[in-house]
Design goal:
167 residues, alpha/beta, 14% strand, globular, binds shikimate-3-phosphate
């Protein structure tokens, strides 16, 4: 049965916070992919990137997508790059409803600069990096038909939009 709800989208679009809230409201189990990978590995995403490289992390993501896709009724927050592997979108689609969260570059910058958890943005000019990555990944995010803009919205407002338009 295709009953999972999968929230994807760029870093800082609100996937984890909204996912946690949505799972709570719908009384469903919540899986945050980045957090799950950190627990599995016993180290942070930044440490995994620094010590093993990005492709090792992408393999862990791929394995977790397969595991999640075999389960039901989950609310899932993905990492922002998971759709770079087209097999992941195909498997997510088979397992449930895929929703892409989006927002402005200013909002992304504001949200991600509050922590140092994003190795890809740990650079001299994070704004330029965000713009480059967004341009590179635009087609990948646009491939998701349900888009929900989180700019200026509370977590509950985003949940309302998801519940009213996508479920
Ligand atoms: C990444 C996004 C991060 C995390 C990793 C790579 C990306 O997740 O998976 O740092 O490639 O966009 P968030 O989108 O939850 O920050």
């Amino acid at each position: 049965m295709a009953s999972n709800i999968i929230l994807t989208g760029f870093m800082g679009t609100g996937k984890s916070s909204v996912g946690r809230r949505l799972a709570n409201r719908l009384r469903r189990p919540f899986v945050d992919m980045d957090t799950k990978i950190e627990h599995q590995e016993g180290r942070s995403i930044s440490e995994i990137f620094a010590n093993e490289g990005e492709s090792y992390f992408r393999d862990l993501e791929r394995a977790l997508v397969l595991e999640i896709s075999g389960q039901e009724d989950l609310v899932v927050s993905t990492g922002g790059g998971v759709l770079m592997d087209p097999r992941n979108l195909a498997d997510f689609r088979k397992s449930g409803t895929v929703i892409c969260l989006c927002t402005t570059v200013d909002t992304i910058l504001d949200r991600v600069m509050r922590d140092r958890k994003r190795p890809l943005l740990d650079c001299e000019d994070p704004r330029a990096k965000i713009e480059d990555l967004l341009a590179e990944r635009q087609a990948m995010y646009q491939a998701v038909s349900i888009q929900v803009d989180t700019t200026g919205a509370s977590h509950d407002e985003v949940c309302d939009r998801i519940i009213n338009t996508a479920l």
